[in-house]
Specification:
- The structure is a homodimer.
- Chain A is mainly alpha-helical.
- The first copy, chain A, contains six helices and three strands.
- The first copy, chain A, has a single domain, classed as Winged helix-like DNA-binding domain superfamily/Winged helix DNA-binding domain (Arc Repressor Mutant, subunit A, Orthogonal Bundle), CATH 1.10.10.10.
- In chain A, helix 1 packs across helix 5, helix 2 crosses helix 4 and helix 3 crosses helix 4.
- The first copy, chain A, is globular, with a radius of gyration of 18 Å.
- At the A-B interface, helix 1, helix 2, helix 5 and helix 6 of A face helix 1, helix 2, helix 5 and helix 6 of B.
- Chain B binds a DNA duplex through helix 1, helix 2, helix 3 and helix 4.
DNA sequence: AATATATTGTTTGTGTGCAAATGAAGTTTG
DNA sequence: CAAACTTCATTTGCACACAAACAATATATT
């Protein structure tokens, strides 16, 4: 008879912390989902990429990034064109609306991260993020 | 111009760590999803509960727990009956198959938690889980 | 007892997230 | 050059996850 405590398992706690983070995110930045914001932020950073490559940069598989890109495109936040040298590739760029939105909300995105970690002291935040990153 | 590094944001790192955890889980315990295992484990712990109450115990909303319970019931891992005193309520219990499966995999579930935190030392694991829990 | 309020489970709609299969288009190899 | 392979985007199918609306049923208030 093994003693198993659900509340002590990292997977379960991870899920709950993520729930809290999602709630904070959608309250402070209801215009975009965390996923959509990540895609937009990365797209602005790299200027132009293909769809699958963008997915790889933010750890989304081909099926997932397709949906995210479609939703951003439908709202006019990014633009797609075909790569003339490789007609399989769909090259993506943030539109000017996308850039404006990003500039308007990036400070809020930072506040979301802060608020999520608010229960921790400054030192603990650094420590926690360091440990968390090692679990990639 | 705010300096925003996606890879340093807790939400993004949380998502990646969760991805890694999910991959470990489905490799070591492909019979159940983490969600289904959580529902089964909690159900065995509390013996009998209504569907929505079970959802509350493991932080799943009514729509989500319904799907999870339906899938477990379809596989015969739990049984449902109507509460005679309150005919709205669907009372759930783990079936004997459900209990057997749980006993057979609970040790594996513990190994999954261990493996997820493997990159950390013993002291760091305790420390990390403590900090993580404070972010509920 | 009649009305108002709350809760239970269900359904619909939207958005991730992954596996597996597919056709089109490149690249590598014999 | 042709066959084998790889990659790109797409589609389908399944599993969470939450919001909002709903009917049925309980409970509380007057």
């Amino acid at each position: 008879m093994t003693d198993y405590k659900l509340d002590d398992q990292i997977g379960f706690v991870l899920r709950r912390v993520n729930q809290r983070h999602l709630a904070i995110f959608s309250q402070l930045l209801p215009e975009l989902t965390p996923t959509q914001f990540a895609a937009l932020a990365k797209l602005i950073e790299v200027v132009e990429v293909s769809q699958n490559e963008l997915g790889r940069l933010i750890a989304m598989d081909a099926a997932t990034i397709k949906g995210v890109v479609d939703r951003l495109a439908r709202r006019g936040l990014l633009e797609a064109r075909r790569n003339p040298n490789d007609s399989r590739r769909k090259l993506l760029r943030a539109s000017s609306e996308g850039k404006v939105l990003y500039e308007n909300v990036v400070a809020t995105a930072l506040r979301i991260s802060e608020k999520t970690m608010d229960p921790l002291s400054t030192g603990e935040k650094v420590q926690f993020l360091g440990l968390l990153k090692r679990l990639w």
